[in-house]
UniProtKB/TrEMBL annotation:
<dbReference type="InterPro" id="IPR001503">
    <property type="entry name" value="Glyco_trans_10"/>
</dbReference>
<dbReference type="Pfam" id="PF00852">
    <property type="entry name" value="Glyco_transf_10"/>
</dbReference>
<feature type="domain" description="Fucosyltransferase C-terminal">
    <location>
        <begin position="217"/>
        <end position="399"/>
    </location>
</feature>
<comment type="similarity">
    <text>Belongs to the glycosyltransferase 10 family.</text>
</comment>
<dbReference type="InterPro" id="IPR055270">
    <property type="entry name" value="Glyco_tran_10_C"/>
</dbReference>
<comment type="pathway">
    <text>Protein modification; protein glycosylation.</text>
</comment>
<keyword id="KW-0808">Transferase</keyword>
<dbReference type="InterPro" id="IPR038577">
    <property type="entry name" value="GT10-like_C_sf"/>
</dbReference>
<protein>
    <recommendedName>
        <fullName>Fucosyltransferase</fullName>
        <ecNumber>2.4.1.-</ecNumber>
    </recommendedName>
</protein>
<keyword id="KW-0328">Glycosyltransferase</keyword>
<dbReference type="InterPro" id="IPR017177">
    <property type="entry name" value="Alpha-1_3/4-FUT_pln"/>
</dbReference>
<keyword id="KW-0812">Transmembrane</keyword>
<keyword id="KW-0472">Membrane</keyword>
<keyword id="KW-0333">Golgi apparatus</keyword>
Amino acid sequence: MQLKPLNTFTVTLMLFFTFLILFFSGFLEFPSVSSSIQQPFSTPPHTLSSKSHPFTDLLSAFRTWDSQMGCAGFRLKHQDLIRFLSNSSGSLQEAGGESSCHQLKMEHVSVLVKGWTWIPDNLDNLYSCRCGMSCLWTKSSVLADKPDALLFETTTPPFQRHSGDPLRVYMDLEAGRKHSGREDLFISYHANDDVQSTYAGALFHNGRNYHVSSYKNNDTLVYWSSSRCLPQRNQLAKSLLKLLPHHSFGKCLNNVGGLDMALSFYPECANDANNPKWWDHLHCAMSHYKFVLAIENTVTESYVTEKLFYALDSGAVPIYFGAPNVLDFVPPHSIIDGTKFSTMEELASYVKALANDAVAYAEYHAWRRCGVLGNYAKARAASLDTLPCRLCEAVSTKGGRNARTE
């Protein structure tokens, strides 16, 4: 008997049901949203050497690491990671922005910072910028009597800008950055906005005691300090810290007996012996611990704050919970991204093992000893430290007071 040819509809229907059977049986799998953007080098090595080398002196750990690996070995071992994290990142604006010299319309730009602001006073200066342009950044209306731009941070810019008025600049570096709706230029921590300002620079931590101890506490592994007790952050910190020996300073989960106990533990960390302040301990005290827990207030893309960079600057290894693209902002193999572990128990086990492996621990410091910076160099170049020149370039590109009104 001769078979009738199958029509197109029947064939399509058969293929569709075959596809469904394969999919639900697990032979076919679609990538999730989170896995569709591959980050092959973001997960730290969860297995360490079985050898235990407890240490309390960081310098001795460095010497051991030098003898067993050294900078050449580090570059070879992490060459894929270094290459991956050194490529151009969409998370960071390139220093100098997109404007080239021929796009600059002014040789000199003055920016007047308006109202009360946390912006450090020592940012006030006359800067020599690229392309021969100079930039005056000041809080003084005397020094900038006819500014090209007004910078607002805690107050809202004027509703309207008339022809010949200074450009209105608004800055918001908080999570969930919001435009004022009245600005001509917007500054935030995100690369998609007009001018980016990361937290990676030195000006975010003025007035600190930068004494760094080579001694690392081997009994109390983790430092944590927080005085804004957000429920979710507290719960996350509690779930990890209960598994690790730690000192918790600040108001949240304090287990040391007071807010100023860091200065009692480490008196050499006080900047002013007659009038010690709670923040004097931030870097110096951190340096006595192998790890610093850094948890952002809000988890959102590119919001990588001083909490992480304080820890890096202190010579500790940060255990970080925050921005999903954090690796775009830090040196290769410099932090432990807590989100890459399946459970808190797995993370705690890794931290304990790392604390007893001098060579593996020292490797987290190799970036600064070997000059392997990756995207960290770009994060520093886009920080508050360089903001004056970069903002002045943006103002110059628009033409300052001569910019057209919208």
